[in-house]
Amino acid sequence: MLIIGIAGGTGSGKTTVVNKIITSLPPGEVAVLPQDSYYKDSSHVPVEERSKINFDEPAAIEWSLLVKHLRELKEGRTVEMPTYSYLTCTRQEETVTVAPREVVIVEGILVLTDPVLRDMMDVKVFVDADADDRLIRVIARDCVERGRTPMMVLNRYQDVLKPMHEMYIEPSKRFADLIVPQGGSNVVAIQLLTDYIESRLRRPNI
Predict the structure, then answer these.
(1) What angle do CA 128, 63, 143 make, to 5 degrees?
(2) Which of 23, 37, 187, 200 is the most buried if burial means most Cβ atoms within 10 Å?
(3) What is the pLDDT of residues 9-58, one digit of tens each?
(4) pLDDT digit string (tens) for 129-145?
(5) Could you tell me whether strands 178-180 and 123-127 are parallel, antiparallel, or unpaired per DSSP bridges?
(6) C-alpha–C-alpha distance, residues 108 and 8, integer Å
(7) Which of helix, strand or coil describes residue 7?
(8) pTM to 2 decimals?
């Protein structure tokens, strides 16, 4: 099993990179564990307080469960991945069954910040993108998918996203084996990454 960590700022193009890797490999060879699925449950927090939760710091993630699931997959066992609702800020009753695959991608803004998780990765990738480009993508995404207004997104960017990016996400770049500038539009870097993955799969003992 090849474990790949893909990090980068919010709106940097991580999902695009992940999708291009998946489509470049034979069907069924890749499993994805999104960091966002492992947000700690906030159902005990009053509804009016949930909007104030900082989702961009490592303390928001249940790293122990993510590491446990990754270890179980490595041991050949199927796991039940949690699901999380951004609209209610709570973990859902539904889970997603994830079976072991040749390639497991752990994707999220903070996945290179946790040392235990980082040590389990065979390849560590940081998807880089200009701050303005990231902000534009975040506004478009959050307004459509997470029920926020443009002003809400801009306020959150100033108060949370930008300082957390500078404090946690950007410094984690130094742990990356490969930095992908220009986000998901960097065809050359993504091709180099997929070529490397394919070479590792052909030589599983290396």
Answers:
(1) 50
(2) 37
(3) 888 889 889 998 898 888 888 999 999 999 998 878 787 777 677 888 99
(4) 877 777 777 777 777 66
(5) parallel
(6) 7
(7) strand
(8) 0.86
Most confident of 129-138, 170-179, 193-202: 170-179
- Give the pLDDT confidence score for residue 145 in this predicted structure: 66
- Tell which phi-psi region holds residue 83, choosing left (phi > 0), alpha (psi between -120 and 50) or beta: beta
Which residues, in sequence order, are CB contacts of 17 under 8 Å at separation 6+? Answer: 6, 125, 127, 180, 183, 184, 190, 193
Rg of the chain in Å (alpha carbons): 17
Structure tokens at 46: 């009053």
Residue 76, class by beta-carbon neighbours within 10 Å (0-12 exposed, 13-18 middle, 19+ buried)? exposed
Provide the token pair at 195: 């070529």
Place of tokens 């947000």: 39
Length of the chain: 206
